[in-house]
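User: Here's a chain of 225 residues. Predict its fold as C-alpha cells.
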Amino acid sequence: MSENERPEIKVPCETHIICVLLLDTSGSMGGVGVDGMRPIDSLNRSVMEFQKEICKDEMAKRTIDVAIVKFDDTVEMVAPFTPVEDMEYSPQVAKGRTCMGTAIIKAIDLIKERVQAYNCLAVSYFSPLIIMVTKGESTDSIKEAIERVQEEKSKRRLLFITIAPPGANKETLLRIAPVIEHSDEAFDWLAFSLIHRSFWLHDPRRFDNEPLIIEYDSSLRTLEF
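Assistant: Prediction complete.
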C-alpha cells in the first residue's frame, strides 16, 4: 500500500472497531411485509438510528469505523470506511435482483483492505463485524460466500450477523450466520454492543471482569467479542 493509498485515521492511538453495513436494496425489499411495513423503509430508518445511537458516545463515534455496501442488480459501496460520526447515508430505494453472494465477498475483501491499512499505520483494531440486512432470496450463488465467511470466522477474523425482515428466508440465511429478526430493538442492541465493546477497549475498569457477551433474546443469542 502506497503513501497515497493510506487512509487518514482519526485517533490512531486508540483501538478501532471495523464494521460493514451490508444492505439488501433489491426489489424484494420494496413490497409490504407481513408486519405491514416495507422492509426498505425499516432499513433506512434503522441505519440512521444506528448512527444516532453510537454517536451518543464520544469515544465510540470516533473509533468505530463503518463502511456501507448495498446490493441489488449490482454491488456498490455507498460509503467508504469512516468514523460513525462522519458517516453519510442517503435513504435507499428497492429495485432489481439480489446479488448477495457477490456482496458478501465484497464486504470481506473491504475488511481485509482496511486491516491492511491499519497494520501499515500501526493502528490497533478488534474483530471486524459485518451486519447484513436482507430477506435472504439471493439471485446469485452464495456457495463461495458461505465458505469465505466460515473460513474467516474459524480464524476469529470476523463476526457476521444477519438482520432479516419478517417473512425472510431464514433457512438460507442461517447457512451463513446467526439471524435476528429486523426491528428497531435489534439495531439498538447492535449499537449498544459496539459501544460496550468500545468502552471495554478504552477503559477496561468500566466493566471490571464482565464477559464481552451482549444478550439479545433467548433465541440468539448473544454477540460475543
